[in-house]
Amino acid sequence: MIVGLTGKSCAGKDLFASFLPADRFSVIDVDALGHDALLMNRDRLVEAFGPSVRGSDGNIDRKVLGPIVFSDPGKLEKLNSITHPWMVREALSRAESAEKEGLIAVINAAILERMGFVEHCDAVILVIAPYEKRLERALMRDGLTEEAFKARSDAQKDIGESLFSSGKRVITIVNDKDDGELRRQAEFLSASL
Q1: Number of domains comprising the chain
Q2: Per-residue confidence in pLDDT tens, the chain, 193 aa
């Protein structure tokens, strides 16, 4: 079984994933795969964005690449066209391996829908939290300014929008209380899958 896990910034999807028992679930962190995708595609990235994105160690310098792509939607689209296919193939390969081991594969990706993972999932978990709660977490945990969080949140408006018309089972987890409540929901869900 493959389960997608998604949610907007600071909704709590990563924390939720950490509460899933490792003896039954294999969580595939697509954000972490993004770092590997930069390494695996470094020559194409240098070709697309210039030699300045290559760090002194030969790898892609994310501090240089970030401002280039996040200031220009066309360049961000170019980055995604290079890295996303590799990330999707790698995540699905890991999910297949987890299934062969008798585990439930959980593909944890904020942009699960945009990357095309939903069609490969048997069910999707959507972690939601009120904007004010997410903002509070962003200010405390990530040290973001309110303006920076609003920009990030605006860029994620589409997260969860297409899930309910996807034909997939959608499990909504509301994370508006404490971590203990989120853990209880993860335990309940893990027992029901």
Answers
A1: 1
A2: 999 999 999 999 999 999 999 999 999 999 999 999 999 999 999 999 999 999 999 999 999 998 899 888 899 999 999 999 999 999 999 999 999 999 999 999 999 999 999 999 999 999 999 999 999 999 998 888 999 899 889 889 999 999 999 999 999 999 999 999 999 999 999 999 8
Contacts of 160 (CB under 8 A, 6+ apart): 6, 7, 8, 113, 126, 128
What is the domain-level CATH number for residue 176?
3.40.50.300
DSSP per position, 81-105: HHHHHHHHHHHHHHHHHHHHTTPEE
Domain that holds residue 100: 2-192
What's the rounded Cα separation, in Å, for the pair 132 and 130?
5
Query: Which residues, in sequence order, are bridge partners of residue 127?
Result: 7, 173
The total of other beta-carbon atoms located within 10 Å of residue 9's CB is 19
Q: What tokens does 149 get?
A: 């969080």
Nearest CA to 37 out of 103, 81, 95, 73 is that of 81
